[in-house]
Every structure is written in C-alpha cells, then in structure tokens.
Description:
Largest sheet: 13 strands, antiparallel
Distance between the termini: 49 Å
Strand content: 35-45%
Number of helices: 6
Order of helices and strands: HHEEEEHHHEEEEEEEEEH
Number of strands: 13
Amino acid sequence: MRILRNLRVVLLGLACTTALLAQVDAREIMRHAVAAGASNWRIARNYAFLQRVDLRRLDAQGRVRVSEVRTYEVTLPEGTPYRQLVLRDDRPLLASEEKRERERLAKSIAERRQETAAERAKRLSAYDSRDWQREPWQELLDAFEFRLVGQERLEGHDVFIVEAMPRQEYQPRSPTARLFRSLKGRFWVGQRDYQLARVEAEVIDTISVGVFLVRVAKGSRATLELACVGDRVWLPDRLQVFASARLGLFTALRIEQSVHYSRYAEVAADARTIQPAEGPDTLNATLNRSPKAVSP
Length: 296
C-alpha cells in the first residue's frame, strides 16, 4: 500500500509539473531571452578578462596526440578588444616571446591612435554591433522550433530548459545563421531575468565550410556556461567543445577544447586609452588597478 501511495504522489507531481509547463510558451521564453541578450551585450562589451584555452588533439582511438594550454589577456585599448598571450602551459612566457607580445600590443595601439575619425568610428561601430554574432542571434526565433522540456535550479538560479530543433524550411538571412539547419540546441533561461545561464549545441548534420575545405562531423557538440558577474551582467564562464572534422579530402581532426574565462574587470569608457604595460606582471597590474575586477 505504501508503494501505491508513493506512486500516486509521484504521478500527481508529474501531472502538476506537466500542467505548469503547458502554460508556459517556449517561444515566448526565447523571445524574452533574445531581448535580454541584446541588453546584456551592451554591458558585457565593456569588460576585460582572462581567457585560458586548453586544446587537445586526439588520434582515431581517442588518445591525446597534442596538448597545449594558452592564457590570454583580453583588454580594450582604444575601445575595442585586443587579445594578448600572457602564459603558455600555465607558465610565464620566455623573455623573447613576452617582448614580442608587448611589441605587437604597442603596434596595435599605435595603429589605432593613428586612425582618422571615420576609421575609428567604423572600428568602434563594428565592435558595438558585432554583426557576425548578433545577426544570427536575432534570427534564432525564426530558425528553430522550441519546446519547454523542464525547469530546474542551476547555480542558485531558477531556470527554464528549452529545447530547439531547426526548421528545415527556414531561409537564413546571414551567413552564420546557415549553420542553424545543422544544429540542435538546449537553452537554460533564467525565470526571473530571462538571461541565458547555459547553452548546449550539437551538430545533427555535417557542416561544410568552403568547397571540401572543412567538414564538421555529426555528433560534434559544444556547451557554454555563463555566470552572473557583479549582480548586473551575465558573462561566459566556461566553454567546452568536442569536435570531429575533416580538413580537405584526407586530413581528419578530433579535438577537445576547454575555455575558461576569469578575472573580469569593467573598463570605463575614459580608461580605454592605455599605454602598453611592461614586464611579466602586466596582467595583474592592469586588472588590480580596477576596483571592479571580479570572477564569475
């Protein structure tokens, strides 16, 4: 009898959950998420950060053939990002390489400062709009069919879980959105603010780039986790990629990549004109000067 009572409780709970989910429109959730993402970007674009990239190349048996870890400092000299290598395999760079990286940064800053007003406006506008990223995001609602598959609590936040399957009849308007027809996805969307907390994507049909140049295999997948920074903006925390691809007609490639983002620091508009720093402590000196330096 106890088993039957427990079973009834479980079934009742499932029925209530199903009824609740039925009242929530998945497309409406994603519509709010797209709008929230646009607002979030206007704040997120003002942050500098550390980016640690752990890349592994595997053989056909899944054994690691090549492994490398690179850490980059991403800053905003003259208002747009610059990515500078600061560590290799979690160790300081050789003196010669460090010098070369400082020289590259100095050259980039000098070139930006020599721009005409029109050239500067064009560069800043391109970063603000990020068409390669935002245009596909705006097409998301038309490119996929959405289904609410659950709710849960993720890292202290109540979220909806929305599944996305491509609409094969959709005609993409931007080059990047053409990939949507070969992807399925799952989104973890905040119930309070509709910000994305997690995104999963999987290749369900081979993606070809160019004529026999690159073919990304079915089953390749990626997961992006985001974190709320300073209670005001959602920023990437970790990206995991597992991919199989073929380069040209013969070269097969299998990779695992983990990207970790940390040491976020908001950069005020009037602080984006900087001089290239000197010495191995460039990163810490730059970020520690900001009282808003935080980690997700």
